[in-house]
């Protein structure tokens, strides 16, 4: 039952935004569904402002009545909580704010609102014949560019770290004040924000992975569209060679820099999941797919236990030179490698289809390479992953990336466990040992990816898969996450992102870092209105 204060606020919001843009009742509760669990959190209401001015106005009302707000961009933060708030709140759905403004000086600067998706920006760039690269993310074309950047998502494009490409922000603070980055005021229209740091304290970072305000505009630097995009693939013959593949990939990135901006090292079980449907018949006895089944399938497909795939981007002559260097480095370490262009992959796919069926499986790696290159290429539609449906066994036969919604399938359960590791062989091995031990304990498939985002840093990623309509599996998945977080903390590594409901895993009010963050929060939002408990230890002091 809504309180009198909330009812009064709802009347004011309806007057400001329009009746159809204030959603209550069952229609609002769909925002409380995510892949994290089958339970739902009560949503007071959903507000859908149609312009920045509407956001400012609704925040003033929330501040007056001290009602918590939880802003979302598209709500497609799958595996981390989607649109589910950290506590009982009014959701501010910013998906209707879709303005795009491109700098006219050819600098590659684009300013967008929260409702602008990866697919939407790609279409805009194509329609305006802009020679810049639309960012890519594995969650598909319907994910918000701003939402992903603020969560510090990563891309397989030349600008891997999404938030690093943000040069200016506009943010509505908890009292309704409009904050602008230092060099992006309206008075500087003829001077675009080409220097993200501005002058004086760098404040923009406060609004990344935090609850300090509602971001309503962001300016990004886009990478020029490369004239040539190719890829390399390599694999080792034994699980013992993980260290070798990590060191070799690091060496390639050190020598080639931004030409090889991203590499993805797949564990045996992760590659198996890309090649095969979940083998329920083999897994029933031991719960986790046996290593012998995984090894046999990889061998059958012409691959080894650890597979690395990376991008090669740039001018054709530079890419050609990079191919030689990459081939030489792998050869020196006796690692089997392949180099693919889009044309070569299509040629090999045609040859594969011509082979007798019994031989086609031996060349399944061509399809894996094709999928990877398609997803990093700006010339083809960005797809969406089938991995979230792998354990539930219910993926649609044909996935339309523009209509993907993992939350809507009650069988689809996924929690992302993401850590930051040094790009060292010892760190990768220690991570895998922890993952395998804990996952076996909780009967979770160890579908690990190592995303080497630079020659110094690896993101270790594990999608914890379960059947969301199975309470026992759900409990195992959540217990596995917390167990992994504790073991990783003991090892000295760090989590990179955490799901809603798991904030306590990283937020520690006894640490000076979180104490300082809480003091900033108290200054900007003393009544704790914006996303209470999200990456924050701040609590309203009792009077």
Sequence-ordered SSE layout with sheet pairings:
Elements: H1 4-17, E1 22-23, H2 26-29, E2 43-47, H3 52-65, E3 69-72, E4 89-93, E5 100-102, E6 109-112, H4 118-127, H5 145-150, E7 166-172, E8 178-180, E9 214-221, E10 228-236, H6 242-256, E11 263-266, H7 268-275, H8 280-286, H9 291-300, E12 306-314, H10 316-332, E13 336-340, H11 342-354, H12 357-360, H13 365-376, E14 412-422, H14 425-442, E15 449-452, E16 457-467, H15 471-491, E17 494-497, H16 512-524
Parallel strand pairs: 2-4, 3-4
Antiparallel strand pairs: 1-2, 5-6, 6-9, 7-8, 7-9, 10-12, 10-13, 11-12, 11-15, 14-16, 14-17, 15-16
Helix pairs in contact: 1-3, 6-10, 6-14, 7-9, 11-13, 14-15
Descriptive account of the structure:
The protein is of the alpha+beta class and 543 residues long. The protein has five domains: 90 residues, Uridine Diphospho-n-acetylenolpyruvylglucosamine Reductase, domain 2; 122 residues, Uridine Diphospho-n-acetylenolpyruvylglucosamine Reductase, domain 3; 147 residues, Vanillyl-alcohol Oxidase, Chain A, domain 3 (3-Layer(aba) Sandwich), CATH 3.40.462.10; 105 residues, FAD-linked oxidases, C-terminal domain (Vanillyl-alcohol Oxidase, Chain A, domain 3); 37 residues, no CATH class. The protein is 34% helix and 18% strand. It has 16 helices and 17 strands. The strands form three sheets. Strands 13-10-12-11-15-16-14-17 form an eight-stranded antiparallel beta sheet, with helices on both faces. Helix 6 packs antiparallel against helix 10 and helix 11 packs antiparallel against helix 13. It is globular and about 70 Å long. The protein starts with a helix and ends in a 19-residue tail after the last helix. The relative contact order is 0.12. The model has no long low-confidence stretch (mean pLDDT 90).
């Amino acid at each position: 039952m809504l309180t009198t204060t909330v009812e009064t606020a709802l009347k004011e919001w309806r007057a400001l935004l329009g009746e159809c843009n204030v959603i209550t009742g069952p229609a609002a509760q769909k925002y409380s569904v995510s892949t994290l669990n089958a339970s739902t959190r009560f949503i007071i209401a959903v507000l859908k402002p149609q312009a920045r001015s509407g956001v400012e106005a609704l925040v003033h009302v929330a501040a007056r009545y001290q009602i918590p707000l939880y802003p979302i961009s598209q709500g497609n933060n799958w595996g981390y909580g989607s649109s589910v708030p950290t506590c009982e709140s009014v959701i501010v759905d910013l998906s209707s704010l879709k303005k795009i403004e491109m700098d006219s000086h050819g600098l590659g600067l684009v300013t967008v609102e929260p409702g602008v998706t990866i697919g939407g920006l790609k279409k805009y760039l194509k329609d305006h014949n802009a020679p810049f690269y639309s960012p890519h993310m594995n969650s598909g074309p319907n994910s918000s560019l701003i939402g992903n950047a603020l969560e510090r998502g990563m891309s397989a494009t030349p600008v891997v770290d999404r938030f690093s490409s943000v040069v200016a922000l506009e943010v509505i603070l908890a009292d309704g004040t409009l904050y602008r980055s230092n060099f992006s005021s309206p008075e500087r229209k003829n001077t675009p924000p080409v220097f993200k740091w501005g002058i004086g304290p760098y404040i923009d970072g406060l609004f990344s992975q935090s609850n300090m305000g509602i971001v309503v505009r962001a300016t990004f630097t886009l990478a020029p569209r490369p004239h040539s995009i190719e890829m390399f693939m390599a694999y080792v013959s034994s699980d013992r060679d993980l260290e070798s593949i990590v060191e070799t990939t690091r060496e390639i990135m050190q020598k080639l820099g931004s030409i090889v901006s991203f590499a993805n090292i797949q564990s045996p079980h992760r590659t198996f999941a890309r090649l095969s449907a979940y083998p329920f018949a083999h897994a029933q006895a031991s719960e986790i797919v046996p290593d012998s089944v995984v090894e046999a399938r990889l061998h059958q497909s012409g691959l080894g236990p650890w597979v690395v795939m990376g991008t090669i981007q740039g001018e054709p002559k530079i890419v050609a030179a990079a191919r030689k260097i990459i081939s030489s480095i792998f050869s020196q370490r006796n690692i089997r490698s392949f180099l693919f262009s889009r044309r070569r992959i299509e040629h090999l796919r045609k040859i594969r289809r011509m082979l007798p069926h019994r031989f086609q499986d031996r060349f399944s790696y061509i399809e894996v390479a094709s999928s990877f290159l398609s997803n990093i290429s700006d010339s083809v539609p960005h797809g969406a992953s089938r991995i979230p449906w792998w354990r539930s066994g219910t993926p649609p036969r044909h996935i339309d990336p523009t209509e993907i919604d993992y939350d809507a399938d009650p069988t689809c359960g996924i929690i992302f466990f993401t850590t930051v590791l040094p790009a060292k062989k010892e760190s990768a091995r220690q991570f895998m040992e922890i993952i395998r031990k804990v996952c076996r304990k909780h009967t979770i498939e160890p579908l690990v990816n190592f995303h080497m985002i630079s020659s110094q840093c690896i993101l270790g990623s594990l999608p914890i898969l379960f059947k969301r309509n199975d309470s026992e599996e759900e409990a195992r998945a959540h217990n596995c996450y917390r167990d992994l977080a504790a073991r990783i903390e003991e090892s000295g590594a760090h989590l990179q992102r955490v799901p809603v409901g798991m904030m306590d895993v990283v937020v520690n009010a006894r640490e000076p870092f979180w104490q300082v963050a809480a003091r900033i929060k108290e200054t900007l939002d003393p009544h704790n209105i914006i996303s209470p408990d999200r990456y924050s230890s701040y609590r309203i002091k009792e009077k």
